[in-house]
Amino acid sequence: MNNLFNLSGKVALITGASSGLGVQFAKALANYGADVIIIARRLEKLEKVSKEIETLGRRCLPIKCDVTKEDEVVAAIEKAIKEFGKIDILVNNAGVGAGTPAESLPLEEWKNVIDVNLNSVFLVAKEVGKHMIENKYGRIINIASMYGIVANNALSVSPYHASKAGVVNLTRALAAEWAKYGITVNAIGPGFFESEMTDNALKDEQFLSYMKVTTPMRRYGKMGELDGIVVYLASDASSYTTGQTICVDGGTTAV
Predict the structure, then answer these.
(1) 11-247 CATH pick, 3.40.50.1970, 3.40.50.1000, 3.40.50.720, 3.30.2350.20
(2) pLDDT tens across 191-219, in order?
(3) Any transmembrane segments, and where (predicted)?
(4) pLDDT digit string, tens, across residues 1-14
């Protein structure tokens, strides 16, 4: 029987892959056989991650790229295609947060979060999507958030909520538009996982208490607990799944 989750021969591109969840996604896909392209602004960190992935026996190409800049995205995708000949899987992971109360939030801070968390998702999907359309195959996985589905009363993150909700419906729109080309488009909605963006909040005792009250499993997500869903959505196991946002949040959005 064929292994539905086997990614051998596939090429995956992961944005925001210099730290945190992006690194975990890249390693998970490599562990299941994919060669990977990792993109972020910090090349030195990407090169370190690349060496770690190559020890898994997979090829890895690090590319410095600011995903909010169209010319850099176009150049990065062209470089990736030239090196590997195709991109089968895209994980749109780059993202930022904001912690300013809405009534005093500077417009520039709002615009930056929307630019990184939503505009860049469209921009990278658009450029990679062109090649997937030509190949009549693709798996696009956008990293949204459980906070694209629900709000919260512990953190002042209105632009984060708005941007991730945009990712959820952009995922549906692209899924509907590109299904005829053999492309699936889905999203993952992580709950509380450790990353550079969440480090300070997750170590706060008051926030820990809030999490235990609002999360049925009463704990943060552990490293590796997103591996299964990203491999599923990248593989043939999800061939009839598209337009969905799957929350991996310990049950937070269930209550």
Answers:
(1) 3.40.50.720
(2) 998 776 666 777 888 888 999 999 999 99
(3) none
(4) 369 999 999 999 99
